[in-house]
Amino acid sequence: MNNYVYILITFIVTIAIRTIPIIFIRKPITSPFLKSFLYYAPYVTLAIMTFPSIINATDNIFAGICALIVGIYLAWKEKSLPIVASACFITVLIIELFV
Amino acid sequence: MNKIAFKDGIRDGLPICFGYFAVAFSLGIAMRKAGLTSFQGFLFSALNMASAGEYAASQVIQSLGSYLEIATVTLIANMRYLLMSTAITQRFNPDTNIMERMIVGYGITDEIFGITINREGYIEPSYNYGALLVAVPGWSIGTALGILAGNILPARLVSALTVTLFGMFIAIIIPKAKHNKVIFYLIIISFLVSFLFDHFKLDISLGTKTILLTIILSALAAYFFPIKEEEKS
């Protein structure tokens, strides 16, 4: 397995996803199932990649759990992306410093 | 080239560039674990411009997955761009040529899609060129520096930085969950199933797990709770 081949493959797939509609689609997607599937999929993917990885990412599992809670709380309050991301970072820093 | 639109693009791209830089830095740390060099990380990010897609793909690289696996994982993690690109096809000026459309398409990230669709009238490619001119270096250089710094920074700081990337994912999914009940429960179920998968240590890679669960859970949700028109993103 070669890293450059890996990168080339991701590039081909990503650029295809982004440009195939531009080249071929003249009309919006109409199938309710397909539309709904494309709508839900990103949230499922991101949720699966976030949990439980976030609590295993830190040396201390407690720090990861706190970062998850702080992140969810601030995101629920609709704070901006950099604020939520850096709050998670700072939470882990502080807890790992003291625990 | 429309100079005013180009300048507007740079202006709106700058805050995105700074946000990207921080997240790309933590992505770089994840890539370093996968054994990628800083040049490879730079290339990876410049070519893909996709946080979740690159993160998922670097997990496949870390586990020495097959080429088919990395292609499928990238497809699943980046599938949302299919919807966004479809949405922008409706907004091009008929005079905009295919090359210009392709460049705009290459640069459709969550944030750039947001600022593009926010403007009135036809899409002005010069605007996207301006935004890309600042956002692409922010993203790719951030990734390369994350890989480099991962070697120097203390382990604790590295583990804290890794959490930044997850923080970004949380910032994307949670506000949507607040306003959409189906997504709310879908996220809780995804968390739970993902946890159970890891807990019972099923003998499949992280990439395959992401693909399987995304397809099954999204298909179930799409079948039982098809979206109404106004929810279309």
Task: Name the features.
heterodimer; A: 99 residues; mainly alpha; 5 helices; extended; B: 233 residues; 78% helix; globular
Characterize the structure shown.
The complex is a heterodimer of chains A (99) and B (233). Chain A is mainly α. Helices cover 80% and strands 0% of the residues of chain A. Chain A has helices at residues 3-24, 32-50, 53-56, 61-76, 81-98. The longest helix of chain A is centred in the N-terminal third of the chain and has 22 residues, at 3-24. Chain A is extended, with a radius of gyration of 19 Å. Chain A has a domain at 31-98. Chain A is built from 5 helices and no strands. Chain B is mainly alpha-helical and 233 residues long. Chain B has one domain. Helices cover 78% and strands 0% of the residues of chain B. The model of chain B has no long low-confidence stretch (mean pLDDT 90). At the A-B interface, helix 1, helix 2, helix 4 and helix 5 of A face helix 1, helix 2, helix 3, helix 4 and helix 5 of B.
Shape designation of chain B: globular
Question: What's the story with the biggest beta sheet of chain A?
Answer: none
Order of helices and strands of chain B: HHHHHHHHHHH
Poorly predicted runs of 5 or more residues of chain A: none
Average of per-residue pLDDT values of chain B: 90
What can be said about the biggest beta sheet of chain B? none
Amino- and carboxy-terminal Cα gap of chain A? 40 Å
Number of helices of chain B: 11
Gyration radius from CA atoms of chain B, angstroms: 19 Å
| Rg of Cα set of chain A | 19 Å
Give the largest chain-chain interface (CB within 8 Å).
A-B, 76 and 102 residues
The helical percent of chain A reads over 70%
> How many separate helices of chain A?
5
Structural class of chain A: mainly alpha
How many beta-strand elements of chain A? 0
Number of strands of chain B: 0
Q: Give the strand content of chain A.
A: under 5%
Overall average residue pLDDT of chain A: 90
